[in-house]
Amino acid sequence: MSSVASSSSLVFTTHRRGQPRIERKTTFRCSSASWSAQEYSDEKKRLKMRALSEAHKSFLGRWHRDASKNENVFEYLEAHDMDGNRSTATYVQVWDTTTDEATNTFLGEGAFTVWTVSSTGTRRKLSYPLGEFVEKYEGESNIFGPGPGEVHRKATWDMSSRTHEVTSTSQLGFESTTRTTDESGDWMTCVRRYRKKDGSVDVSCVEHFERTSLKSL
């Protein structure tokens, strides 16, 4: 941060009765801060981060799935015509507060961006603004169907219960993903439900993630 120094002087006059006056000059130096656009933006982000609830902060950081605690994940993947053995793969997510790229400021409470990587080759970044939004995709998707296509999604946030939920409606059917963190902030529970459009499938699963780092990226 750059600054411009300035100075000012005050003259104090002191004397004791019966003695000559003595003048003492004191100089004060001060600086007026000149913030760059980037520094101002970073400071605004820091202030907004401090304003976020503990519930929101409990989602931030790096999370590793504990496959030993999986519940019905194998069956859930197979319902999507995916290899059920992927249920034991290394699966990591990094959660951060979504940033508006145009202004470099946080979107605020309950808005998250999630990076996902896995040992089976998954590499993706998704942002979940609160409310309804449309997500477009190219190519074939086991979850959403052949592309190019689009998914109508809705993200909701309940601070009191530490719950973030995303619902998705695609050409294949309806899916919900509900995540909650415990009071310690060490564990995240992810409940997924998939209902096929023709009603032939209605399956749920539960995954458990352990937070291994408070840092995002």
Structure overview:
- The protein is mostly beta strands and 217 residues long.
- It has one domain: Lipocalin (Beta Barrel), CATH 2.40.128.
- Helices cover 12% and strands 51% of the residues.
- The protein contains three helices and 14 strands.
- The chain has a ten-stranded antiparallel sheet. Strands 1-2 form a two-stranded antiparallel ribbon. A two-stranded antiparallel ribbon has the order 5-6.
- Strand 5 and strand 6 form a beta hairpin.
- The longest helix is centred in the first third of the chain and has 15 residues.
- The radius of gyration is 27 Å and the shape is globular.
- It starts with a strand and ends with a strand.
Layout: helices, strands, pairs:
Blueprint: E1 2-14, E2 22-34, H1 37-51, H2 54-57, E3 61-65, H3 73-79, E4 91-97, E5 99-100, E6 105-106, E7 112-118, E8 123-128, E9 131-137, E10 149-158, E11 163-169, E12 173-181, E13 187-196, E14 202-213
Antiparallel strand pairs: 1-2, 3-4, 3-14, 4-7, 5-6, 7-8, 9-10, 10-11, 11-12, 12-13, 13-14
Task: Label this structure with key terms.
single chain, mainly beta, Lipocalin, ten-stranded antiparallel beta sheet, two-stranded antiparallel ribbon
**What is the level 1 CATH name?**
Mainly Beta
Reading the helices and strands in chain order gives EEHHEHEEEEEEEEEEE
The CATH homologous superfamily corresponds to Calycin beta-barrel core domain
* CATH-derived topology: Lipocalin
Helical fraction equals 10-25%
CA radius of gyration? 27 Å
Number of domains: 1
Strand order of the largest sheet: 8-7-4-3-14-13-12-11-10-9
Q: How would a crystallographer describe the biggest sheet? A: 10 strands, antiparallel
Please report the total strand number as a whole number: 14
**End-to-end span in angstroms?**
24 Å
